[in-house]
Amino acid sequence: MSKPDWLEIRQGQAPLIVSIPHTGTEIPAEIEAKLVSPWLARKDTDWRIETLYDFAAELDATIVRTAISRTVIDVNRDPSGVSLYPGQATTELCPSTSFDGEPLYKDGYAPGSDEIAQRRATWFDPYHLALADEVARLKGRHPTIAVYDCHSIRSVIPRLFEGTLPQFNIGTNSGKSCHPALAGTIEALCTASGRDTVMNGRFKGGYITRSLGQPDEGVHAVQMELACRSYIDEPLGEVSEANWPVPFDAAYARPIRETLGSILNACLIFARATR
Asked: What does the alpha-carbon distance between residue 148 and residue 177 come to, in Å, rounded to a whole number?
């Protein structure tokens, strides 16, 4: 079966998979016509993350990315519909609101169960099949591999969390998705950078981390949720079409790229040393 155009896979040989699930901005025309506005539909994109982590190819990591917007379908949600964060505000498999609670669809146009099932078959399932295939391929070469799931979010979103989000938010499904030694190393590198860091706080890892992380089987998964201000000159508070998103500034991002490079190298060192 041929790979769909929206699915990007860079196959590397190192024991590291970098998943980039939320940087996509593509929305089919028939779906976009139902939305309140194109800008609002893309507001919660993990802007510039694919650029921030472009050095992963130099590490010979495998990179899996979808170009489809999370508004079409969120490949980091549980497809059963079970909330990843019970009791807390979040968005659905096919989001009907933005992170700020704004309706994404015109009245009467939000997707029903049949359309959600079709979107899942078209975009969600192939993304996860690609991840599973790459895990199996690399496990054929290495006893241990690391899966690193890349995310970002605006620093201030009162509907989702209080105050200003720490810059580094590490998620390991409360310790279930990777060995504590790897988690501890990543946390130490983040802390050493001088940036505020939290482990398994508001963001414990989404469906990708929780479904792939099987430490007993040699697959160690970590989610990194970056506050946007850590790598782009983010306007804090409410944003508008006039000021969001902002361009990527390599000089602004350089310090955190150095830390992220150390983190991905630590994933490789851990995987190669673990039998």
From this structure: 11
CB of 182 closer than 8 Å to CB of 218 = no
Q: Where are the beta strands (DSSP E) in the chain?
A: 7-10, 16-20, 62-66, 145-153, 168-171, 197-199, 219-227
C-alpha dist (Å) from residue 245 to 130, 139, 241: 29, 38, 8
Percent of the chain with pLDDT over 90: 92
CA–CA dist 155, 99 (Å, integer): 12
**Residue 84 corresponds to which tokens in the numbers above?**
């990843």
**pLDDT tens digits for range 234-245:** 998 889 999 999
Residue reference for tokens 């497809």: 79
Q: Do residues 221 and 208 make contact, with C-beta atoms less than 8 angstroms apart? A: yes
Q: What tokens were used for 111?
A: 């997707």
Q: Look at residue 1 and tell me whether its pLDDT is greater than 70.
A: no
The pairing of strands 7-10 and 62-66 is antiparallel
Tens of pLDDT, residues 19-68: 999 999 999 999 999 999 999 999 999 999 999 999 999 999 999 999 99
Q: What is the DSSP string of 58-109?
A: GGT-EEEEE-B-TTT--TTS-TT---SSTTS----SS-SB-TT--B-B-TT-
